Amino acid sequence: MTQYAQPYGAQTHHSQPYADYLSQPQQFPPIPAAPPTPPKASVLPVVSLVIALMALVGVVAVGLGLAAFSGAESGGGSGSDAPLTGQLGTVPSGALRGADLATEVTDVIADGWGDAADLRCPDTQAVEQDVTTVCHGTIGGEAWAVVVFFEDRDGRFTLLPV
Q1: Could you report the per-residue pLDDT of 94-146, keeping only the tens digit for each?
Q2: Vertex 125: Cα angle to 119 and 130 (nearest 5)
Q3: Which keywords accompany this UniProt record (predicted)?
Q4: Are 140 and 113 in contact (CB under 8 A)?
Q5: pLDDT score at 122
Q6: 3, 29, 74, 159 - which has most CB atoms within 10 Å?
Q7: Backbone dihedral angles phi then psi of residue 87, each to the nearest 5 degrees
Q8: Rounded Cα gap, residues 14 and 11, in angstroms
Q9: Beta-strand runs (E) in the chain
Q10: 23-29 contacts: CB < 8 A, separation 24 or more?
Q11: 121 or 76, which is more confident
C-alpha cells in the first residue's frame, strides 16, 4: 500500500519537540552598552569670539569710511571738500546784495580752497540763522557751486562745496 501525505492541518505526533523548544528560556547575546558620550564643549567661548571679531571688523570699517569721506585730501591745496567758515565784514540791516556776498565768499575761498573766479551769488533777503544761498563760479579752474549757510544775525557763515 502506498502511503500518502497527511492532509494539511492534520495532527501529527511530531509536535512534541516544538513544545520542548518553546518551554526553554531563550538565550540571546547580551546587548552591548552604549559608547560613552564625550563631554560637550561649551559654545559660549566660540560665539563670544565670533561676536568680538564682527565688532572689530565693524569698527575698522567705520573708521575707514570716516577717513575716506572726511573730505581731507593728502597734500591739501585747492579743491578740498572740507567746509570753510567766515564772517561778513558789515552786516546789512535788510537784504544782502549778491555782489557783496560774492566778495566775502571769494576771500574765504582764496584762504582755504584756492583761487575763486567769476563767483556769482544771488541777493539774500536777510542775514540770520538758517538762511541758505548758493553761489556759482570757478575754484582752482574748475566749475563749482558753493552753499552758504548763515549761522546767525552777526554774519557768520559756513561754506560747503557742492
Answers
A1: 888 889 898 888 888 888 777 777 889 999 888 888 889 999 988 778 888 88
A2: 85
A3: Membrane, Transmembrane, Transmembrane helix
A4: yes
A5: 92
A6: 159
A7: -145, 140
A8: 9
A9: 84-87, 116-120, 132-139, 142-150, 156-161
A10: none
A11: 121
